[in-house]
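Hi there, hope your week has been kind to you so far. Please have a think about how the structure follows from the sequence. I've dropped the whole record in just underneath, so have a look:

_____
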Amino acid sequence: MIDIQAVSKSFGKTEAVKNVTLTVPDGAITTLLGANGSGKTTTLRMIAGLLKPDTGHISIDDKRVSSNRAAAVSTLGFFPDRFGLYPRLTAREQITYAARLRGVDEKHLHAAVGDAMETLAIGALAERRAKGFSAGQRVKVALAATIVGRPKTMIFDEPTRALDLYAVKLLRIVLKSLKKDGHAILLASHVMADVEELSDTVVVMAGGKIVAQGSCEDIRIEAQQPNLEDAFFALSGFDLEAIK
């Protein structure tokens, strides 16, 4: 479980995240839905301990990220907005490195890496160096590095970008399976098809703030709109008539 309490973050005079409070429960998929610049990525980076909040605090399974980062993120898988692959390492080496950073027991390391590669269907890439990967291949290897060892909590920043239709379907199946197994999953996305199919709770962000949260149907009803996309525009402050 991720617990975010009254978190804010500024960069100079720009308030990127403003007083965000949110709980991401186990056994569910929570999605941050927002346009670029809405605060989604900054929020995820603070959860991962890559940025420190100016105010408020974040805990992962009751461990404060700010004061005990190593313990807090030891059970966290993080798929970032930039993939962070080392060009001279093979896919297997990338995933093995991620597993060791997460503290996967050496006795189970080989099996954990094999499971991650099999889950994302990237066995053919195992011994290839990342330097020659396509964008979609890079995404799939980074996703395997995120889920290796099956960390209790996982956060994904736009996980379906650059994926073909087959890979998107595969990822959706994987995320639903992880949810069923009790993992806490937090996505950041603006792909409405992903949001509608995967989300138990949708958290609409605009201008660094949470402007609405609930099921897809809750969001649609709150905005009095016929579909989630129009509800998102209305709640985010866009002029739907001007767009139309």
About this structure: Residues 165-180 form the longest helix (16 residues). Residues 34 and 184 are 20 Å apart (CA to CA).
